[in-house]
Amino acid sequence: xxxxQYLEIFIEEAKEHLQNLNEALLEMEKSxxxxxxxxxxxxxxxxxxxxxxTMGFKKMTVLTHDMENVLSEIRNGKINISAELxxxxxxxxxxxxxxxxxxxxxxxxxxxxxxxxxxxxNLILEGKDAKASQEDEKxxxxxxxxxxxxxxxxxxxxxxxxxxxxxxxxxxxxxxxLKAQEESYNVYGITIVIxxxxxxxxxRAFIIFRTLEGLGQIIKSHPSVQDxxxxxxxxxFSVFLISSESQDKFLKELNSIAEVxxxxxxxIHLEGTVQNFEAKEHKAQEGEQEEDQxxxxxxxxxDNKGQAPTKPKANRTVRVDIERLDNLMNLxxxxxxxxxxxxxxxxxxxxxxEQIEYLxxxxxxxxxxxxxxxxxxxxxxxxxxxxxxxxxxxxxxKNLELHxxxxxxxxxxxxxxxxxxxxxxxIRNACDHxxxxxxxxxxxxxxxxGNVYLDAYQDGNNxxxxxxxDGNGIDVEKVKAKALNNGTITRDQADAMSDQDIVELLFxxxxxxxxxxxxxxxxxxxLDVVKTKIEALGGDIEVKTKLGKGSKFIIRxxxxxxxIQALMVRLEDEKYAIPLNTIQNIEDVKVxxxxxxxxxxxxxxxxxxxxxxxxxxxxxxxxxxxxxSMTVVIVNKGDxxxxxxxDGLIGQQEIVIKTLGKYLTNIKLIAGATILGDGEVALILxxxxxx
Amino acid sequence: xxxxxxxxxxxKQFIVVKFGHEQYGINIQIVQNIVRMPNITRVPNxxxxxxxxxxxxxxxxxxxxxxxxxxxxxxxxTHATRIIxxxxxxxxxxxxxxxxxxxxxxxxxxxxxIVSDADDEKSKYVYAVGKVGEELVTLLNVGSIIGVxx
Lengths: 691, 150
Description:
The structure holds 2 protein chains of 2 kinds. By secondary structure, chain A is of the alpha+beta class. In chain A, strands 14-18-19-17-16-15 form a 6-stranded mixed beta sheet. The interface between A and B is medium-sized, with 23 and 24 residues.
């Protein structure tokens, strides 16, 4: 069956399930012993398994299956939830995410089997402490960790040799064995010890496998075939297989192979019945299991080589609320009606105006509707942060708590895609450099638990995202010393700068390159990159900090990138657009009211000193200045204000932003262009670079 | 017969334009459009040879003065002045020309390659000379004029 047409749905759904899994795991960490959560996680793992199996993603199927086994035991109360267990489950989540990423990139799940995680899951299943085996990346070590338990057994000597007795089966292996018993086949557990003098153990193992396959069907091996192939085993390995041959035959055949030191064979009997529910699925998995783990090494290699990445790359998709699409559909049909209406209008002014008004209403609504389709809640980005903070807390040995609000705030899709990295950076900073160590917090009279806040809300035409912490804040003096040290500012400058100015230095590129950044509490690392990215999205970032109390990074982003409200202004005979959301007010200022501070023109407006920016000069418009009063558009960028001097106001207008194209990328001051109603082009002023 | 000839790979078509007294050929394959002079919106702080941007059916396209780039005297806009919109590497740009004369077909034999003189800035804008009977047409290397390899 060709399943590639379902790939996109699969990816979309898998992502959703992984998200649920992530949330449930985090929740479980806070409140262990929650049956509902275990059920939820079990359900997700089970669904993912089914989905992956249908799509033919075998490695994912194996992993989710083993997860399911462990979760099922938790559900039955046989295994208790521990921090180590959660770590393993988180690792599973990461591994599954990697599979999905790989599938998005290439259409295949890749070669990674994540065997260490599977081994760990199986160890947990066997009732062993996952912590003890945390480091046993290599199977040889895992053999060692099994020994203490073996010693406890009565016939310990014998059991150590018969290692297959210590192995457990997962659900579908059990099923396969039971089925074989039903059909009166023999099931054998075999441990083979190769002589110490053997030179190329993997080659020897390969011959043994081939011999065994001639005699029956292999259902399990330990270590896995992959590891055996890589010689990741000591001198022995264990195999389980189904065969109609006798035990003696095995002993004879295996002992005839050169350099096989000892062979132990036992017949295996399992109690129970074949579980018939999902029999079909299990059958499929048996096949997979064989292919994945127990094929002859050479065959597996060949398979891997044959898997050329021929599958098409999956497209990026958006899930859209059907209501929003319906709305869009309705508007488009209305648009067609207007078009028809316009065609029949015959120079009747009255009629024409009516139609145009109708058209105007539709385009406004259409714009609104399309924007809504493009809007996604910031939850999409936010939902990865609880995990990030959890991991950071463990890594940094701090008690950290993340508080989020406003996840439902919506932002344009393109912005959502881009904002993730800067936020990760800021949250990392808040956890790492912002928060003190628990002891330090206690000393300064705070609670040991450090709080990190992530809030989103809409503010007019902007969406604001704040990343805050209640840590120690930014030490302005240290930043100043640092800046003086590396020559970013001179002593004179430093004296003239306000605290806020100095904090802003952290956004300077030179600050991120300094190596002993921990001296200035590390706030500067990469902040320039964060700033650049946010400004590229048409937003801005500012920081507020209070020593001892914490700091807050405030990001302002435009709701949408494509269409904005703007004020059209005139300079001589040229027209420019200023984004309305940056404009505070418009003032008439007498030329005689202009004052000078450090050779910069300023005006004193109701107690605020605002620098005046002569747009004509900056934009290369030459003329004589003779006027006595001037029109000043007061704009703000974060907390900063400035006054643009213009010749006249044309009015407010909704404009469509277009880029100037590749040949004009380096033009500062201009954010883009727009086409006016008469077909003329007007340029949009980049307030960010002007202020 | 003529269509057959056009398909022949040896035959190339050029739009012949005029700056002053000289005739230049632009490979027709990169030409998107020839438009009359619209209003050009000046872009502050752009290089001198960029005259500004125009609106071509909703698309913003920069317009370049080939004369300024060639260090000739400034353009004199007349009723014959046209903008040739060329597209190289997916990016469109308009070239201001004094006049568009005709479209010619040149066979390989009629095109004489010029070895560009590395010391001369301007010579890299030209890659060959086409011979049409008695007339000579300078064939332009548009890619290097607008700053991308063709």
